[in-house]
Design brief:
Blueprint lengths: L27 E6 L7 E6 L16 E4 L6 H4 L6 E5 L3 E6 L8 E4 L2 E9 L2 E5 L2 E5 L3 E5 L4 E6 L5 E8 L38 E7 L2 E7 L17 E4 L19 E5 L2 E6 L15 E4 L3 E10 L10 E5 L9 H8 L8 E9 L4 E2 L1 H4 L13
Parallel strand pairs: 1-18, 6-13
Antiparallel strand pairs: 1-2, 3-20, 4-5, 4-22, 5-12, 6-11, 7-10, 7-12, 8-9, 8-11, 10-15, 13-14, 16-17, 17-21, 19-20, 19-21
Length: 376
């Protein structure tokens, strides 16, 4: 068995006793945490912000992308796949802006799929029946399920998050209880139609396996022939606005407290409006290096209180090793403003254990000046 040293918190200098508490003037706090904020941690108190760089040379950079400016493959061609943005062996993140109903059924045999609906509404048909979707929905499609989307709008924006060779689960809420954050009673599942309406013409099922596609054609509708089903594998959905945040007036909680879904090698967190901490507590995200995880944040709606110059549907990517935290404007806007009582933002964070690769497609909408956005 490997030797595991004991946990032994030590001190040097004169640090504050309570993490994220009132920090002396002229100091800033940095959290050096392990295992996605679940492991060991130290807090360093410095006289300069770690983001006050004059310049950065080399591949370790923070990134921002404006996805509203991006044209996707399936926006141009209804038979095309969503456009891949970021990927590693555990996770693939793609963007769909379909303008009309899918002319085929898709079946992902590589892993579960989570579709976050940033814009749009409509119906999803699947082996398990039909389910309506709307802005803010997370739709979980189990691996091997045939489905297609029938949007009722033309201005659609769907973020596809694939759990490659894995599945989505809800995290264990521990002493908070099973109804905390997401009450299972709010989860919706499909219903079989009373009168199937799709014609028995030839239908295509497009199967993805090992990243390759196989087309299977049927002389009947291979989804609407389901007459009954039972079990605990099915399509299901929950809306980000139904997520109940955990909060503490005396302590700024780490992002991991907002974990919504877990899969192998990554988690998905939901940031939703919540009461702010007391004025004498750190109210904005602390400077940190989540040293084992890439941190990708999709800004869905509202006022993004820790970032300046970030717009709706922007994505930021913060790799481990180079620190990040609140921008200077956040201190005056939130931390030093006792009249500010609540956050007003909706955002989806994807933390991945393996580094995310950035595709050429999403590089076309990169915000090139993002690394300088922390400067005074």
């Amino acid at each position: 068995m490997p030797y595991i040293p004991p946990r032994f918190p030590k001190k040097q200098g004169n640090p504050i006793n309570k993490a994220h508490g009132t920090i002396p003037d002229g100091q800033i706090e940095i959290e050096h945490g392990r295992k996605g904020f679940f492991g060991r941690v130290s807090h360093l108190y410095k006289s300069n912000k770690p983001t006050s760089w004059s310049r950065v040379e080399g591949p370790l950079q923070h990134y921002a992308f404006s996805l509203l400016r991006m044209e996707t493959d399936d926006q141009r061609d209804v038979y095309a796949n969503p456009t891949l943005l970021f990927h590693n062996n555990d996770c693939k993140i793609s963007l769909s802006k379909i303008t009309t109903e899918m002319p085929y059924y898709a079946r992902n045999a590589d892993g579960d799929l989570n579709i976050f609906v940033h814009k749009g509404q409509g119906i999803m048909e699947s082996d398990y029946g039909r389910i309506a979707f709307r802005r803010g929905d997370y739709i979980i499609i189990p691996r091997g399920t045939s489905y297609r989307l029938i949007p009722e709008t033309t201005d659609n924006f769907l973020l596809h998050i694939e759990a490659s060779d894995s599945q989505y689960d809800l995290p264990d809420r521990g002493m908070l209880g099973p109804t905390a954050q997401i009450d299972p009673g709010m989860i919706e599942t499909p219903e079989l139609p009373d009168n199937p309406t799709r014609p028995d013409d030839e239908w295509e099922v497009r199967i993805k396996k090992y990243g390759q596609y196989t087309k299977v054609f049927y002389p009947f509708n291979p989804v609407e022939d389901t007459v009954a089903w039972k079990g605990d594998v099915t399509v299901w959905k929950v809306n980000i606005r139904d997520f109940n945040p955990i909060m503490s007036p005396k302590y700024h909680l780490p992002p991991s407290a907002h974990t919504t879904f877990i899969a192998r090698g990554f988690v998905i967190c939901s940031f939703v409006p919540r009461p702010l901490e007391d004025p004498d507590v750190l109210r904005i995200p602390f400077y940190h290096s989540n040293i084992e995880y890439d941190e990708l944040l999709f800004y869905h709606d509202g006022e993004f209180f820790s970032r300046h110059g970030i717009d709706e549907a922007d994505v930021t990517l913060h790799p481990p090793g180079i620190l990040h935290g609140p921008q200077p404007q956040a201190f005056d806007k939130v931390q030093n403003n006792s009249a500010k009582t609540h956050t007003n933002e909706y955002a989806v964070m994807i933390d991945t254990r393996a580094p995310l690769h950035i595709t050429d497609a999403v590089k076309t909408v990169e915000k090139k000046d993002y690394m300088q956005s922390w400067k005074e």
